[in-house]
Design a protein that fits this description.
The complex is a heterodimer of chains A (115) and B (564).
Chain A: H1 4-10, H2 14-20, H3 25-36, H4 40-50, H5 53-70, H6 73-87, H7 95-113
Chain B: E1 14-18, H1 22-32, E2 37-41, H2 44-53, E3 58-64, H3 72-80, E4 90-94, H4 97-105, E5 110-113, H5 119-143, H6 153-166, E6 172-180, H7 182-189, H8 191-212, E7 215-220, E8 223-229, H9 234-242, E9 255-261, H10 270-283, E10 292-294, H11 297-319, E11 322-331, E12 338-350, E13 354-356, H12 358-368, H13 371-393, E14 399-403, H14 413-423, E15 431-436, H15 438-442, H16 444-456, E16 460-466, H17 472-478, E17 483-486, H18 488-493, H19 498-514, E18 518-520, H20 526-535, E19 539-540, H21 551-563
Parallel strand pairs in B: 1-2, 1-3, 3-4, 4-5, 9-10, 12-14, 14-15, 15-16, 16-17, 17-18, 18-19
Antiparallel strand pairs in B: 6-8, 6-9, 7-8, 11-12, 11-19, 12-13
Helix pairs in contact in B: 2-3, 7-8, 8-9, 13-14
Classes of the chains: A mainly alpha (115), B alpha/beta (564).
Chain lengths: 115, 564
């Protein structure tokens, strides 16, 4: 179950995230939950594997804005980095960044599923 | 969806959030929801559809830039290229510096970075942008004429001054364009068509302004002003405007007039320059073939003369430079004409210009309202003079005084007239009031009411210049008068023009029906006098008997009458 404490332990900047939610804890946690379940992570992974740079950029960009607003900093860092590479149309291998993103995503999923 | 526009429990303003990311939409929505009705859409196409349907209701748009399908920059381009949506301010949601610059260049009012600022900052920015946009909208509504899109007059003068400041090296011209006798277009083709003509002229002028880098406005119903760098060919400009308006020239008298005041007369304010251009435009009425008239030396001298007279007016009243002359009226019903009364006429003994006739200064004083002061002065002088004659000769010689067009708007007119009677111990049998028929055409109900009130006080009303206006007979049906004064043009022409002769007879017959006397003005010879007498006119005035004379000369006429 997501709590402010577990998210802080994860590395999220809970203070900033909460302030954007008008200090409404319930709303913040709900939005973080929505972010973890967002299908865009799967779409990014698929586009990266298919070498579809444009689709990958759209997904990464979308995730970047969403994660930034929720201040989920540990996953935001690799997503931001990947977004900038993809914006420039970079065809280099960014599998390390994708791995990092997947790993951070899994960490969040675990937090969410813990009872 | 529609209900979102009519929620009245919070703010009456609606903002639209366009973002493909639901979490961002919800975050921003929860911030904005404190102060606004918030609508959400998730793509550019849907945003444009909604905005086009509700363009007047949306106060602010939050627009994400990177979206699948139609992106935010394309939405921005569409909005800013359409007149109906161009006014909606847009705050762009972005995290990218290049996009920020691009969006500002495309017309975005502001941008908000992701991650978002604290909610207070977002709300403050929204408030500021909405306020600025609404202020701009109000200013734009006030500065533009809704029919033509040209400036309104006040803003036009401000923009003209700005234009002049920014182009000091250029000679600027003031141009007045007027559709003369526009009322004919209104009457013959209807208001809708008349508006179409005005819009067309407005559109053409807008096109011209773009080419000549000037500014323009619609100053009156049918009058346009242009302030622009000097042009060499104003006839060409007039022709451009006229093209496409052939109907104007199917009508006698309706035409496009243009008056230009060029740089040589630019030693005065912009407003004054337009007054001069307008005078030039009005003077073109005399020369139909000449469409474009320039303000020139002759008009300049006339203006100087008018301004001098207006300037000197008050001092002249104090110095008693205005002299009342008396135009004797004679009763010709008997064998010998007998002096019965007179009309008080004012002359100006000007220290510089000498004796000036009323025809030369009354129109000038009428145009700026000073005529009221002069009339009041004249009435007082007449009152004093009647008292003198009564005391000196113990006789009754009623004097008619003129009540000008402007006097009917004087709320104290009755009080002023009664005071003159009281001060000089006179009655309404001593002072008659001459009202010109043309006043009826200008403000019939006002004139009728005033005449009724003056008659209730006992004053006798003489209708001056009868037959010269448009509405003589109708007026007689609506208001009671005590004397008809036959317009002098009829008398002057009646020996050479049979129509004038028949009209004189007709007016005298009308007076008989109404049981009021007729006074014939402008009687210059024995023949005219004889015919008028045969027709039944009993009272005449004119050079044949006497011109208007000074009080001293009138003394002599009274003495002659007494001697009879």
């Amino acid at each position: 179950m997501l709590t402010l404490e577990t998210l802080a332990e994860y590395g999220a900047n809970v203070k900033d995230g909460l302030s954007r939610c008008m200090e409404k804890e319930e709303m913040y946690l709900k939005l973080v939950g929505m972010a973890i379940e967002d299908t865009t992570f799967g779409e990014l992974e698929k586009a990266m594997k298919n070498g579809d740079t444009e689709a990958a950029f759209m997904s990464a960009h979308k995730l970047k804005g969403m994660l930034a607003n929720l201040s989920l900093d540990p996953i935001l860092r690799p997503v931001s980095e990947l977004t900038e590479y993809l914006r420039g149309g970079s065809a280099e291998d960014h599998s390390d960044l994708l791995e990092e993103i997947c790993m951070q995503h899994e960490r969040l999923e675990k937090l969410s599923s813990q009872s | 969806m529609k209900n979102a526009f009519i929620r009245a429990d919070k703010s009456s303003r609606t903002v639209l959030v366009v973002d493909d990311e639901p979490i961002n939409r919800e975050l921003l929505g929860s911030i904005l929801d404190k102060e606004y009705n918030v609508l959400f859409v998730e793509n550019g196409k849907e945003a444009l559809r909604l905005i086009n349907e509700h363009s007047t209701e949306i106060s602010l748009l939050f627009l994400d830039i990177v979206m699948p399908g139609m992106n935010g920059l394309d939405v921005l381009k569409e909005l800013k290229s359409d007149e109906s949506t161009e006014r909606i301010p847009v705050i762009v949601l972005t995290a990218d510096v290049t996009t920020e610059l691009q969006s500002i260049e495309l017309g975005a009012a502001d941008f908000i970075k992701k991650p978002y600022d604290v909610p207070e900052v977002i709300l403050a920015r929204a408030r500021r942008i909405i306020e600025m946009s609404e202020d701009t909208h109000i200013i734009q509504s006030a500065e533009r004429d809704s029919m033509t899109g040209l400036y309104t007059k006040d803003f036009f003068y401000e923009y003209s001054r700005l234009l002049e400041r920014n182009h000091r090296e250029k000679n600027m011209d003031a141009v007045v364009i007027k559709i003369e006798h526009f009322h004919l277009i209104n009457e013959l083709f209807g208001v809708v068509y008349a508006k179409k003509i005005l819009r067309h002229v407005g559109e053409t002028i807008k096109g011209i302004l773009r080419d000549i880098k000037g500014v323009g406005c619609r100053a009156e119903d049918n009058e346009f002003l242009i302030y622009c760098p000097h042009q060499n060919n104003y006839n060409a400009m007039a022709n451009i405007i006229i093209n496409g308006l052939p109907e104007l020239f199917d009508m006698p008298n309706a035409y496009l007039g243009m008056g230009v005041c060029t740089v040589q007369y630019n030693d005065i304010s912009i407003e004054k320059r337009f007054e001069r251009a307008k005078k030039a435009c009005e003077s073109s009425r005399l020369i139909y073939a000449t469409r474009v008239t320039f303000y020139d030396e002759i008009l300049y001298e006339n203006d100087k003369f008018s301004e001098q007279l207006i300037h000197d007016m008050r001092e002249a009243l104090e110095n008693h430079d205005f002299k009342v002359y008396y135009q004797p009226k004679y009763d010709i019903s008997g064998d010998t004409p007998v002096l019965t009364s007179a009309e008080g006429l004012v002359r100006w003994e000007h220290p510089k210009y000498g004796m000036i006739n009323p025809g030369d200064f009354v129109p000038i004083l009428e145009s700026n309202g000073l005529i009221q002061l002069l009339d009041h002065y004249t009435w007082k002088e007449v009152g004093k003079q009647i008292r003198k004659w009564k005391d000196k000769y113990n006789i009754n010689v009623p004097i008619s005084i003129n009540v000008s067009r402007m006097d009917i708007y004087d709320p104290r007119i009755k009080e002023k007239l009664c005071n003159i009677l009281k001060t000089n111990d006179l009655t309404t049998e001593d002072i008659f009031l001459e009202v010109t028929e043309s006043v009826y055409a200008e403000d019939a109900s006002k004139m009728i009411r005033l005449i009724e009130e003056l008659r209730e006080l006992g004053f006798k009303i003489e209708m001056d210049d009868f037959g010269s206006g448009y509405s003589s007979l109708n007026m007689l049906n609506e208001v009671e008068i005590d004397t008809l004064k036959l317009d002098m043009q009829f008398v002057r022409n009646m020996l050479t023009n049979k129509k004038s002769l028949r009209l004189v007879q007709l007016i005298i017959d009308i007076a008989k029906v109404l049981k009021v006397p007729v006074v014939a003005e402008g009687v210059e010879n024995e023949e005219q006098c004889r015919i008028l007498k045969e027709m039944g006119c009993k009272i005449v005035q004119g050079y044949y008997f006497s011109k208007a004379v000074s009080p001293e000369e009138f003394d002599r006429l009274i003495e002659e009458t007494i001697a009879l």
